[in-house]
Amino acid sequence: MASYKGHLSHVKPVPAPRQASSPMSPTMYAEANRPLPSQIMAAAAAGMSVTHQPGTPMSDAKAKTVLKEAVDAVVNSFAKHSHGYGRVNVVEALQEFWQMKLERGADLKNGALVVYESQPSNSPPYVCFVSLPGGSCFGSFQHCPTKAEARRSAAKIALMNSVFNEHPSRKISDEFIERAVRDAAGSFQGNLADADNPATGIGAFRFMLEANKGRTMLEFQELMTVFQLLHWNGSLKAMRDRNCSRQEVLAHYSHRSLDDDMRSQMALDWIAREQESVGIIRHELQIAERELESARLAGRELRVFKEKRDILMLALSQIGPPESLA
Q1: Where is this region: Disordered (predicted)?
Q2: φ, ψ for residue 41 (rounded to 5)?
Q3: CB burial of residue 31 (10 Å; 0-12, 13-18, 19+)
Q4: What DSSP designation does 197 have?
Q5: 302 φ, ψ (degrees, to nearest 5)
């Protein structure tokens, strides 16, 4: 590990070749037969999503109905056990839930404050995002005629995920790790024997899970967001090109939070890319906005999609007005 600090302290992300399809699509990875940890973790998170229903696909209308019923059931159950019977103020209930977690000893570095962000709009449908104390992000998943309704919709899906995340099945245990690694190996046609080798994608995934034993899937997903963004931004490829091992990269970034410094650096990398390929930021922004919209309407955790959009918008704002990109 002596060389790890030397390798990583001078890493400046190098733009990876960009393609038109979704950045997180498995077909985009250069090493299709050796998936990166971020790819494996993204698939694992999707498989553990509250709203993910394996089996026969359902229509959009049916999926939205099922999602609304699930959200209402969890919210009503929480209301019954917390407040007795009667209508619940879901915004207050979500804040109360996280306040209770903090009082019971949860490790919340920034306190229990739940933060709402309304998407600028002069007419319906209105959209609202909510960020939970740990960093997870959810959004209004219904057609909302008012800003208040959009806030309630976002709070509902966030409360459902917060409550469900407390279930023992969401804790990373030895049994969970074995199942997740087995599923990941099967999904990517990998060799299960590679799980014992941290230099492989499957092995790195197992290493990450082992290091986060006892945490919940939401907590793990927050950590995973950093690696997904590093992959999307080309930083992981740059570190591989500098002969940094996966173990070194994982050890370095496992304790890094996604902060303004990291976002600013990624925005600068995209500005440099724009100088080499005019229009790349707008192209990536369109992709990020489509991903964010699709995930929001499906009731999924949104942070990685929202961070992509925000980083690209930051880069765009630093370049100048739209006319300068024409």
Answers
A1: 1-30
A2: -65, -35
A3: exposed
A4: -
A5: -115, -5
Asked if residue 84 lies in contact with residue 92, where contact means CB atoms within 8 angstroms, the answer is: no
Contact 112, 98 (CB under 8 A): yes
Q: Say which residues have a Cβ less than 8 Å from residue 18's Cβ, sequence separation at least 6.
A: 273, 277, 280, 283, 284
Quote the tokens at residue 105: 């000893």
In sign, the C-alpha dihedral spanning 302, 25, 181, 243 is: negative
Whole-number Å distance between alpha carbons of 70 and 297: 14
Q: How many Å apart are CA 102 and CA 112, to the nearest integer?
A: 6
C-alpha span between 270 and 129 (Å, rounded) = 25
> Which regions of 22-143 does DSSP assign to beta strands (E)?
115-118, 128-131, 137-139
Tokens of 89: 């103020």
pLDDT digits (tens, 9 = 90+) for 50-81: 444 444 455 666 666 666 666 666 666 666 55
The dihedral over CA atoms of 60, 65, 70, 74, expressed in degrees to the nearest 10, equals: 130
Rounded CA gap, 200 and 194, in Å? 6
Round to the nearest angstrom and report the end-to-end CA distance of the chain: 47
CA distances for 212 relative to 221, 238, 242, 254, 261, angstroms: 11, 26, 27, 10, 25
Instruction: Please choose, from the candidates 74, 71, 103, 78, the residue with its C-alpha nearest in 3D space to the C-alpha of residue 92.
Output: 78
As a whole number of angstroms, the distance between CA 292 and CA 301 comes to 10
Alpha helices, H only, the chain: 2-9, 37-47, 60-83, 90-103, 147-164, 174-187, 201-211, 217-233, 235-241, 246-253, 260-276, 280-297, 303-319
Inter-helix orientation angle 303-319/217-233, to 10°: 40
Q: Tell me the pTM.
A: 0.73
User: CA 238 to CA 224: how far, in whole Å?
Assistant: 18
Locate 73 and state its tokens: 């059931």
Residue reference for tokens 């917390």: 82
